[in-house]
């Protein structure tokens, strides 16, 4: 029985608590594409690096994006070469930088799932209200349900059930997974993040698989409701609309990303900055793509702990604190 958790926080907590070691041998817990930094396609990182080379551009980003390798370099390399790249703790920080630097163009590297993207949409609404013209967002946001559908349909990955993400589910609600459970006969359980939450979620999934049923259950009832956070989704879809998106490892998935609606195109960094990006090539020997699909484990990678380490990562799964390889390196 193979069960896949699809949340970076779950991945880290499962590794830290040693839950895998407690499970019967018949139950295998594998990690999926739950780390937003890890699933960002290499070409999107390459585009951001080319944009920051443009004169008078300030790139803002969350800290865990700094060392993610692109085809030729990373943000850290670009900063070392003189690019103005600043770590922020929220998109509003980037907007404040735009207000303080009217002669420069400020770009926010937009990465994240449904948990993060509504806050970026709210910032864009505020930028429009203040009539700020030098603020842009590079939209690399991802939506979880289409990725789960891609995994459920895959011939390469055989999964018996999903441990669904808690944070994302607070926004999208349990209703977002109903089609996955019904159409693809894939049991889904939404869990919280402490050890007991995760174990209870696994137990519920095992019970569903043994009974041959496929439904959506909420173990994380103290935070997740059937319809999620409608206000957050209203803000999100007032600025963005769904679009096809490239995922590292999973390829292009239909309607799994977000693009700007026409009325907010002026904030679209990809529209503002026309750059040529190199042909994306994954680092030789790196199997991050297979790890993100649950096909391989970090322990199957020849680079793991030998060449690829947190202080010198080869792939993004070792960079992010929520990456599967980083979790294995620290705890397994």
Description:
The two termini are 21 Å apart. The protein is built from 15 helices and eleven strands. The chain is α/β, with parallel strands linked by helices. 49% of the residues are buried. The strands form three sheets. It has a five-stranded parallel sheet. Strands 4-3-5-6 form a four-stranded parallel sheet, sandwiched between helices. Strands 10-11 form a two-stranded antiparallel ribbon. The protein is globular. The protein has a single domain (1-324), classed as Rossmann fold (3-Layer(aba) Sandwich), CATH 3.40.50.
Short description:
The protein has 332 residues and is α/β, with parallel strands linked by helices.
Keywords:
332 residues; alpha/beta; Rossmann fold; 5-stranded parallel beta sheet; 4-stranded parallel beta sheet; 15 helices; 11 strands
- CATH hierarchy: architecture: 3-Layer(aba) Sandwich
Structural class from helices and strands? alpha/beta
Describe the largest sheet. 5 strands, parallel
Can you tell me the number of structural domains? 1
Rg of Cα set: 20 Å
């Amino acid at each position: 029985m193979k069960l896949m958790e699809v949340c970076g926080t779950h991945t880290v907590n499962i590794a830290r608590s040693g839950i895998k070691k407690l499970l019967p041998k018949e139950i295998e817990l594998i990690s999926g594409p739950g780390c937003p930094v890890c699933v960002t396609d290499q070409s999107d990182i390459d585009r951001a690096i080319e944009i920051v080379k443009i004169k008078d551009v300030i790139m803002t980003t969350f800290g865990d994006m700094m060392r993610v390798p692109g085809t030729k370099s990373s943000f850290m390399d670009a900063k070392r070469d003189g690019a103005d790249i600043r770590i922020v703790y929220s998109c509003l920080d980037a907007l404040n930088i735009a207000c303080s630097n009217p002669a420069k163009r400020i770009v926010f590297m937009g990465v994240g799932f449904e948990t993060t993207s509504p806050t970026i949409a709210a910032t864009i609404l505020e930028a429009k209200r203040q009539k700020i013209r030098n603020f842009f967002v590079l939209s690399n946001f991802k939506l979880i349900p289409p990725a789960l559908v891609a995994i459920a349909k895959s011939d390469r990955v055989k999964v018996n059930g999903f441990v669904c993400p808690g944070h994302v589910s607070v926004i999208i609600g349990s209703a977002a997974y109903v089609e996955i459970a019904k159409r693809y006969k894939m049991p889904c359980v939404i869990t919280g993040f402490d050890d007991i939450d995760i174990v209870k979620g696994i137990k519920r999934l095992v019970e569903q698989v043994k009974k041959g049923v496929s439904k959506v259950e909420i173990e994380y009832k103290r935070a997740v409701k059937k319809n999620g956070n409608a206000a957050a989704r209203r803000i999100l879809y007032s600025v963005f609309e769904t679009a096809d998106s490239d995922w590292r490892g999973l390829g292009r998935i239909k309607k799994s990303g977000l693009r700007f609606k026409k009325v907010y195109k002026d904030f679209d960094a990809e529209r503002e900055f026309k750059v040529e990006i190199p042909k994306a090539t994954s680092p030789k020997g790196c199997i991050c793509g297979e790890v993100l699909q649950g096909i391989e484990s970090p322990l199957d990678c020849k680079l793991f702990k030998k060449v690829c380490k947190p202080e010198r990562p080869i792939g993004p799964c070792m960079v992010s604190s929520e990456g599967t390889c980083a979790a294995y390196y620290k705890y397994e």
